[in-house]
Give the backbone structure.
Amino acid sequence: MEDCLFCRIVRGELPAAKVAESETCLAFRDIAPKSPVHVLVIPKVHYASLEEVPDASVFGAMSMLAQQVARQEGVATRGYRCVVNTGEDGGQTVGHLHLHLLGGRAHGWPPG
Ligand code: AMP
């Protein structure tokens, strides 16, 4: 996807604060953090949202990188929240599948 913001980060055309990488996924800090730790985990291949994912491997790989990042960032013991906003009602603003990893503070339920 030529103009996709996160595809451009994957290709190295836009800067990002990368924290981890696997063969298929990339993790980088959210530019406008909502928690002390706020990392986005994305597949390197473009999927517009969770609705486009064809099988379990994509989200499985994202989850495993999120687990690694949580440990790396020191939030695994106390806990963290993973959020995948999907579509308009889900509050998705960037059209490339991404998982928000939020940690470093208590996150209430339901989310505000
Ligand atoms: P969502 O609203 O779920 O689509 O989340 C998109 C997230 O991408 C927001 O939290 C933004 O702050 C974040 N974001 C947008 N542009 C960038 C960027 N260039 N680098 C890092 N994070 C970004």
